[in-house]
Design goal:
Length: about 190
């Protein structure tokens, strides 16, 4: 199998993996919303003189379900330049980032001068739109050799891997918080 074909298969796999991540995040968002709605409709917040454990379980349930909702939103939301989201505790490494949606941010970190159309990528949509016209983009693509194409795809695969890692970091937190919140919600609903 030629190198380019192999790279495109990895690219497709990562795109599917990311798409599946968004589906998982949507399920966490929907589940946590439904559980919060159930708690609210059961009027848990209106219980007169609740015991300490009932109040604690209700509070933990609501807090965990809200956290699950927020982690789910963070998993599906694009990176909006929030500094704390790009630190090594989320990405798992401290190497320069190349997955920013901001071309000026990427230029500062990956060493590529994006002020020249000759240095732009041909896959990432922001790089594509940095070309002044579709004809300019077509010319840039037509100049690529098979080796250049493989290099462009490999770079984009690396970027997609970072996107997937970030998404699954938040999805794992969302699923854990949803599970904890659901357990406490069931306890509170049964105790009411």
């Amino acid at each position: 199998m030629p190198n380019s074909e192999f790279l495109w298969k990895i690219h497709a796999y990562l795109n599917e993996y990311i798409r599946f991540a968004d589906t998982k995040a949507a399920v966490c968002i929907a589940w946590s919303s439904a559980m919060l709605g159930t708690l609210f409709s059961a009027q848990i917040h209106l219980v007169q003189k609740p015991s300490i454990w009932f109040f604690g379980c209700g509070l933990l349930s609501a807090a965990a379900l809200i956290a699950a909702f927020l982690f789910g939103v963070l998993a599906v939301s694009p990176r909006l330049g929030l500094g704390f989201l790009s630190r090594s505790w989320v990405t798992g490494h401290t190497a320069p980032k190349v997955d920013s949606a901001d071309p000026t941010d990427r230029a500062a970190t990956d060493g590529v001068d994006r002020t020249s159309s000759e240095n732009l990528g041909v896959i990432f949509w922001i790089d594509i739109l940095q070309n002044k016209t579709s004809i300019e983009y077509e010319k840039a693509v037509s100049k690529l050799t098979d080796s250049d194409v493989a290099g462009q795809v490999a770079k984009h695969i690396y970027v997609l891997s970072g996107v997937a890692k970030r998404k699954y970091f938040f999805i794992n937190l969302a699923m854990l918080a949803a599970a904890v919140g659901s357990v406490f919600a069931v306890v509170v609903l049964l105790a009411k």
